[in-house]
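Standup notes
- DV: blocked on the single-chain target, sequence here:
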Amino acid sequence: MELSTEMISEKMENFLKLCKKNKVKITPQRIEIFKALAATDEHPGVDEIYNRIRLIMPNVSKDTVYRTLALFEEMGAAIKVEQLCERVRYDADVTEHQHFLCERCGGIKDFHFSGLRKLFKENDLSEVGEVKSMVLQLRGTCKDCLNNN
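- DV (later): unblocked, structure below
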């Protein structure tokens, strides 16, 4: 699903701030790759982003898209949504949220479970190390697929 202009603008503003903070050069390729990622909540993979970018910048390479997405992840502008034995997909929403993966259609939906942090108190995991992030990924059948039976 395409996102509103306001939501995309907010993500772009945050992206530009992160670039400045991390002293990352703002190039036309990086801007277009981030726009392609920020414009949807479908968690696109490298191929989808590459195909969208080629419409605007025909000379961009797939390697540039790979390296740019890795840079975005490193600087905190995007997160990697990994599925077991599947292709990696990306999300420009870096706020704390979780993912529901539909095993039928392959769709990924964001959801917010505010109680996740409460389940793990800092003391409970201190012997393991310092927790920087938590990933909760649910799998099942989405409402759309259930309704299409």
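- Follow-up: Residues 51 and 62 are 9 Å apart (CA to CA).
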